[in-house]
Amino acid sequence: MTPFAYRGGELCVEEVPLATLAERFGTPLYVYSANRIRDRIRAFKRAFADLPVRFCYAVKANPHLAVLRIVAQEGVGADTVSGGEIERALAAGIAAERIVFAGVAKTDEEIRLGIEAGILQFNVESPGELERIAALAAALGRVAPVALRVNPDIAAPTHGKIATGRRGDKFGIPLGEVPALFARARALSTVDLVGLHFHIGSQITALAPLVSAWERARDLLLDLRRSGLPVQRLDLGGGFGVRYRDEEPPMPEALAREVRRLFDGLEVELIFEPGRAFVADAGVLLARVIERKESAGLRFLIVDAGMHTLLRPALYDAFHAIVPVKEPAAADERLVFDVVGPICESSDVLGRNRLLPPLDAGALVAILTVGAYGATMATDYNSRPRPAELLVDGSRVAVIRKRREPRELFADELVPDWLSGPGGAGGDVP
Ligand SMILES: Cc1ncc(COP(=O)(O)O)c(C=O)c1O
Questions:
Q1: 348-375 pLDDT, tens per residue?
Q2: Could you tell me if 102 and 126 are in contact, meaning their C-beta atoms sit under 8 angstroms apart?
Q3: Same topology between domain 4-31+280-409 and domain 95-274
Q4: Ligand 1 pocket, 374 CB below 6 A?
Q5: Could you tell me how far CA 300 lies from the centroid of its own chain?
Q6: Helices and strands of the chain, counted as H and E runs
Q7: Rounded Cα gap, residues 82 and 147, in angstroms
Q8: Fewest CB within a 10 Å sphere: which of 253, 263, 274, 377?
Q9: Ligand 1: does its nearest atom lie under 6 Å from the Cβ of 233?
Q10: Domain coordinates of the chain in residue numbers?
Q11: Cα gap 339→336, rounded to integer Å
């Protein structure tokens, strides 16, 4: 059940008509449903309730403190990929012992932060990183919990730019090198080797590639155990897909069934790191039509949101449904439009060949399923301020990020003294 539905001819979020929010807070505007986030988290927790599983929400999907606060209240941990994400998670009330930390470029400073905070585990991406963690832990007089991130050489059937588990991707340690590194880690007295980590990509809508990765994880665990190398924890990553168009991603129950089949009786703790699956369909982006235009036989609907507010279509050819906020009547005319933004790049297309009513300037559209990898990738490119963000919780509405004024965008820029003379040719050149 989506929290975004037409009521009385108006698209609403929970109990609130979106048009009233656009009127009050302007556009482009991200709007999130708190209850949808809770529902998604609870659906996963319910399905896995009988399994030794903990969830660590992938902060990168939507790192807003208010979102993280909901995650914390639901008893879910955090999967982080930077010191900044660790600090956010802690600030939102997620306990350090529920935080995992992955990423190929952890700096010494970030590693120190994780050790001092007492995070659950570092997901180690290279032999060099393992040695650095051990040395930094030694310097701090601590023991750092680590898991080795494995590159299982599985090509997840998703967009190439969000597949992470193929040979040649920068992530993880090649499967064949894991046993030796595992043995090396066991020999280091300032790391506590707790297990293995796998994450093969994002927006995976089929069960089979996930199961392949999990089988590989189980086989590796059994091999290592047979060689006397104990694995107590498997972090199996995130990547669970959502419906953007007509995908049929596996339900949490189907995922749990496979997990039960593969890991029952193995006495291993499991972690999953969903990001998108918790928050994607809890968000919409409201945009206003600026112009309608025909050119070279194409019709363009030009709106005030674009690749600066939602990068996924330009970056990953991602599809997001776009619907009018005022419900069209069944008999209303519909025409094919390319919905484009204001940015001076030809890649600034939010959706091609969309069947929409010929909306006039000032009309509102909603771009759906933008709660994950939406606002977090927004920029101020073309000096267009990033959108405001709202959280709706039943009938309550809160601004969770204010829109900045264009002048604020350059308020922290500094012009060197030597450029402060009169304008025009010359300056202080002799
Ligand atoms: C290590 C890791 N875990 C979890 C995720 C979350 O993925 P998703 O949002 O598809 O669940 C990512 C994202 O790519 C990731 O890199």
A1: 999 999 999 999 999 999 999 999 999 9
A2: no
A3: no
A4: no
A5: 30
A6: 12, 21
A7: 17
A8: 253
A9: no
A10: 4-31+280-409, 95-274
A11: 9
pLDDT, tens digit (0-9, with 9 covering 90-100), for 138-160: 999 999 999 999 988 777 777 77
Most ligand 1 atoms within 8 A of CB, residue of 62, 67, 151, 199 to mutate: 199
Binning the chain into helix, strand and coil, the percentages to the nearest 5 are 35, 25, 40
Say if ligand 1 is within 6 A of residue 79 CB: yes
> Among the options 1, 330, 331, 344, which is catalytic?
344
Give ∠ CA 322-326-327 in degrees, rounded to 5.
Answer: 80
**Whether the CB of 199 sits within 6 Å of ligand 1:** yes
Tell me the sheet residues that pair with 326.
Answer: 10
Note if 344 is an active site residue.
yes
- pLDDT tens digits, 103-119: 989 999 999 999 999 99
Architecture field, domain 4-31+280-409: Beta Barrel (2.40)
Cα of 273 vs centre of ligand 1, distance in Å, is 6
Non-local (6+) Cβ contacts of 289 within 8 A are: 301, 302, 303, 359, 360, 361, 362, 363, 364, 365
Strands (E), 243-372: 269-272, 283-295, 298-303, 322-324, 335-340, 349-356, 364-368
CA terminus-to-terminus distance, the chain: 71
Looking at the domain that runs over 95-274, which CATH code has it been given? 3.20.20.10
Task: Return the residue whose CA atom lies nearest to atom 5 of ligand 1.
Answer: 238
Instruction: Determine the pLDDT at residue 16.
Output: 92
The pTM of this model reads 0.95
